[in-house]
Amino acid sequence: MATPEFILRLREKIGHDPLWLIGITAYVENDEGKILLGQRADTGEWALVYGINEPGEEPAVTVIREVSEETGVDVVPTDLVRVRAQRELTIYANGDQTQYLDLMFACRLAEGGCSEPYVADDESLAVGWFSSDDLPEPLSASTRERFATLAAWRAAGANRTLFSLGELGE
Predict the structure, then answer these.
(1) Span 48-84, pLDDT tens digits
(2) Contact 22/59 with Cβ under 8 angstroms?
(3) Which of 20, 56, 82, 92 is most buried (CB neighbours < 10 A)?
């Protein structure tokens, strides 16, 4: 998995100290109601597509780019489902420390675009469409948690963004 160039440049200056980054997550459903998942090369777990927002890049554009780069599927973000700050540090094997502000988007397939997923980069071992009642294992804990958020979003009428209130309650 290639670390984005802007992060490498920042790491030259700050070393392993905590770095705050914007991440995106894409929840993509096809016309049959199946969910797009990828098996991560770094953990072997199945997960929703996620990635890092580049400096100056619109988050919705990041969603489109990341889904295409990882699965070959063309999408259109339709809704910002959740904005959530990661409370704990992620510490990578090399010692780098990071926290993320995650923006989760619901997406539909782009009309006339590619809808057949394929492994499009080295971040995934496999990709595919899965029914919600027949999800592959191991499914990442973060993806399970995001599915719960999606259920709450749908229960709220799928017409508002869910914000995490952290210490104030959720």
Answers:
(1) 999 999 999 999 999 999 999 999 999 999 999 999 9
(2) yes
(3) 82
Interatomic CA distance for residues 60 and 83, integer angstroms: 13
DSSP strand pairing (97-109 vs 90-91): antiparallel
Contact of 67 with 59, CB cutoff 8 Å: no
Q: Is residue 46 part of a domain?
A: yes
CB-count burial class (<10 Å; 0-12, 13-18, 19+) for 44? exposed
SS3 content of the chain, % helix, strand, coil (to 5): 25, 35, 40
The length of the chain in residues reads 170
Looking up residue 149, the CATH number of its domain turns out to be 3.90.79.10
Q: Which residues partner with 26 through β-bridges?
A: 49, 105
